[in-house]
Design brief:
- By secondary structure, the chain is mainly β.
- Strands 2, 4, 5, 6, 9, 10 and 11 form a 7-stranded mixed sheet that branches. Strands 1-3-8-7 form a 4-stranded antiparallel sheet, with no helix packed on it.
- A hairpin with a 5-residue loop joins β9 and β10.
- It is globular.
- It starts with a strand and ends with a strand.
Amino acid sequence: VSVVESGGGLVEPGGSLTLTCKCSGVPFDEYHASWHRQTPGKERELVAFITGDGNNARIVDAVKGRFTISRDNDRDLVSLEMNSLKPEDTAVYYCKIQGMSSNTEFWGQGTPVTVSS
């Protein structure tokens, strides 16, 4: 199983980035997907979640209205579009997939996002 994030980088406040998570080795549409982030000294926190069929999504309040999660089950991809970025969005962003009918979960290695002028 492979879960690989990409798209992180340095962006100025107010800017945008889109993170992408490419998955392989599992029937992707049988896995819910989520994005999480972590800063040094803090616990990893959920940012956004989307169901396996893509019909339901949830965004945490801290990023609601600025971030959008989506998935393409034909390409085994889940994306996080981030707009109006703030310095407090600086973190390593992780993708996770979780089996819909099991507790199996897989994490990516993370991609760093830095919001700074």
